[in-house]
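Q:
Got a chain?
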Amino acid sequence: MASHILVQWASATLGLWVAGNVLRGVRLGSFGDAVWAGALLGVLQWALTGPLFVLLGIGTLGLGFLLFFLTRWVASALIVLLTSKLSTRLYVDGFGTALVTSLIVTVAGSIVRWLW
C-alpha cells in the first residue's frame, strides 16, 4: 500500500515536472513545487476519480462508461485544473493545457510503474 502511494506520487511529480518544462501553459517555480503539486494531485485523484466517473457517466447518459478512456482523460484534466486552482505552486492555463498535462502525467505514471 505504501509503495503504491509512493509510485503514484512519483509519477504525478514527474509528469507535472515534464509538463512544466514542455508546455507553455504550465508553470512551476521549482522541482519542489512539482513534488508538492504532485502530492496534492495524487490526493485529489484518489478522492475524486470515482465520483467524477459517476458524474460524467450520468451527464453523458452512460456514453462516458462506453468511452472509458475519454471519460478518464476528461476527469483527470478536471482534477489537474482543480489542483492548479488549489495550489499557488502550479499554474495551468486552461482546459486544453490540462488535457495535455493529464496525458503527460498518465504516460509518466506508466513509465514509473513499468520501471518499479
Remarks:
- The longest strand covers residues 26-28.
- Residues 6-115 form one domain.
